[in-house]
Amino acid sequence: MAFMIVRSFHIYVPNIQTCKQLLTGSRAFSHFCQKMRQFPVGYFDSSILENRREFLCTSCRNYHVKLKNHTSPVVETIQHLGEANNNLKSNSKTLGEQIFLKELNQWSSYKDIFKFVSTLDNLSDTMVAAIFQRLGEVQLQDSLIKSPELLMENDMFKSLCLRLEKESTHLSDSALVNSLNALTKLHVDPCSSLMVCLVSESQQRLDKGQMTIQNLCILGEGLFNLGGSEHAMLEQIMNQIQSTNVEDWKIEEMVLVYRTLQLCVGRKMNLFQNLLSKMNSFAEMEGCQFTPKQTSTVLSALVVLDETQVNNLIIKLCKHASCYIPYFTDDEMINVLEAFIHFRCSDQGFTEALERHVTKFAFVMHPNTISKTMQYCSTLCILSKPIFNAVAETFVYSADNFTVSQIVEQVVPFGKLNYLPPSAPSFFRQVERFVSMRLSEFEPHELLKLLHSCILIKCYPLNFMEKLFSPFFLQELQAETPRSKILSQLTQLFLTIQLECPYYKKPWLSLDYQVKSFYTRCESLESKVDLHLFNRVKAGMIDLLGSQKYFVYNVLTPYHYTIDIEIKLNEEGFVLPVNAHDEIYERIALCIDDEKRFCANTHNLLGKESIKQRHLKLIGYVVVQIPFFEFNPLDNKNDVVEYLHKKVFPNFYSFHENKAESK
C-alpha cells in the first residue's frame, strides 16, 4: 500500500479544542476530501477519506507512528486548517530508507530530528532504530547526555518508545539490537518496561543461535552499557562468535568483534585469547583495507586489550593511519594518537602527515585533539616545530576556549622538549594571563607541573612563587602522588629561582620539601647514564689520564644533581687525584649524553638535561658534553683518546707533563 506525505496537513496545534474545531466542521472536512480526490489514485490510503471517524481519531493524536508491515499510515499532529486549505502539497512517494538516513544525519538536535520525523508518513523498524541512534549521537556531549529530561518528556519520543515496545516481537534482529543499543546510550531506565521487553526479546533470539556476527556485537555493546562487562549474556554472545570461522568474516564484522572484545576485558578474557590471536593474524593481512573509522576502532581495542605482543600489526596500522589523517574525525584521531602513545610507536610518515594537518587546521581542531597531539609529541619526545608553532599560535588567539587540563597538556611539552616557538613572548604572556585568571581551577599538581615546565626554558613564573611555596598549597601537594616527583619539581623550581633570579627575595622553600637528589626511580628529573656509552667513555678517560684515580663518576653535588664524571684541577691546570680536597681550583663535569637525553632524531637536548647543564655552569662547573652522535662513530682507541683530549682539555695539556715527570 502506498502512502503520501501531506506536508501542509502536519499540524502544530496549541490545544485539543482547536483541533476539534478544525476537523468537526462538515464544510471543512468536505473541502479537504475534495482536495484529496484531486490527486491521482494510489498516492494515499483511501481509508483516510472513507472513514471520517478514524481520521478524526488519528489526527488528534500528537505523534501516532506505525512501523513497517502494518496497515495504518503515519498521521501526525495537524497544522492550522486555513493553511492546509491554501497550501496543500503532497509527495509522490515515501522517502526510502537510504534517503531517510542521509536526511536524518543532517540534523544536530533532538528538536530538529523530531520535526523532520513528523513530516514522514511511514517509518520502518530500521528507520525507528536509526532515529534512536541519531538521538544518542546528538545528545551525547563529552560523555554526558544533554537535557535528558526534556528528551524523555517529548511526546514524539514517548510515542516511538511505546510503539517499539508493542511491536518488539515483530522487529527484525537488526532493528531490535540497534534500538536497544541506542536507548542504553540515551540512559533510558534499565528497569522500564520498554528495556525489560527489548532485553527479554533479545535473549530469546540469542538462544536460537541465528543472529549474525554484526547483530551479536551490537547487542553485546548494548548489554555492556546496561550491566558492564559482568552482564550474563555477554559470555553467551562471545561463545557464539567464537564458534564461527574468523576467515569467513567480513572486515566490518571483525572490527565489530574487536570492539566487543574490548568491552569484555576482565571477564574470562583467557577464554577468548585464541580467538583474539586469530583475529590479530587476520587483521595483519587485511589491515590495509580498513577505513579511517575501522583503523581507529581496531587501534583503540588493541590499546584496551593491551596487545603489546603484536608489534607487526600495530606498526602496520600506524603506518596505514598516516594516509587517513585528513579524514579522521576528532574522536578517531584521539584514538589513533592514544594508540601511538600506549605502544610507544612512532612513524616518520605519520608525524609528517600530522604536521601538515595541524598547521592547516589548528585553529578549527577540537581542543581535545590539539591536547592529545601535544601529548603524543611529548610522550615520544618528537620535537615537531611546525606542530609546536601552530599550537602556540592557536593558544595566543584562543586560550579561553581551553580547559585548565588542556592548557597544561599543551604547555608542558614546550618545556619537556626544550623548545621556544617564534611567538614565545606573546605565548607565555597568554599563559601567565590564563593562570592568573583561572588560578582557582588548577589542581595543585597541575599548577606545579605547568610552572615547572616553564623554568626548563628560562621562563620564570615569579608572580606565582608566593602561591606555590605557601604552607597551604604545600600541604595540598603532600596528598598528591608520586610524592618524590612533586618534591623534586618543587626543589628544582626553588633552585632555579635562587640561581637564575637572585634578585627575587620572596618566600623560601622549607628543607622538609626539598630532595637530596633529582635522580629518583619514578619519573626522575635526571636521565640515568647509558651504561654502554659510559663504559666506553670511562675506558677512554683511563687511557687519556693514565689511571682511574684522576676522575670520579656518579658524583652527587650539594645542588641535587648527579654528575656522570667529575675531574678536579688545581690553579695551574694540573689534574688532581679524586681524594684531593685542598688545592681544587676548578671542577670539570662530563655529561655523557646518549639518545634518551635528546628529542627523537634530533640533537636538541631535553629540557631536564638542558637545565641541569645550565645549573652546573652557574654553580661553578666547566661542563663538557659528550654526545652520542659525536662519540659513537669513533672506531679505535686513538680516536677516542684524541677526541676526549680535545673535548676535556681544549686549551692546555699540563697533565701530560705531570704524567711524564711522575714516571
TrEMBL record:
Does Transmembrane show up as a keyword for this record?
A: no
Per UniProt, residues of the RAP domain are: 588-646
GO cellular component annotations of the record: mitochondrial matrix; ribonucleoprotein granule
Cleaved signal peptide residues? none
InterPro entries xrefs: FAST_2, FAST_kinase, FAST_Leu-rich, RAP
Q: Name one Pfam family in it.
A: RAP
Keyword field contains Transcription regulation? no
Q: What is this protein called?
A: FAST kinase domain-containing protein 3, mitochondrial
* Protein source organism: Pantherophis guttatus (Corn snake)
Gene that this sequence comes from: FASTKD3
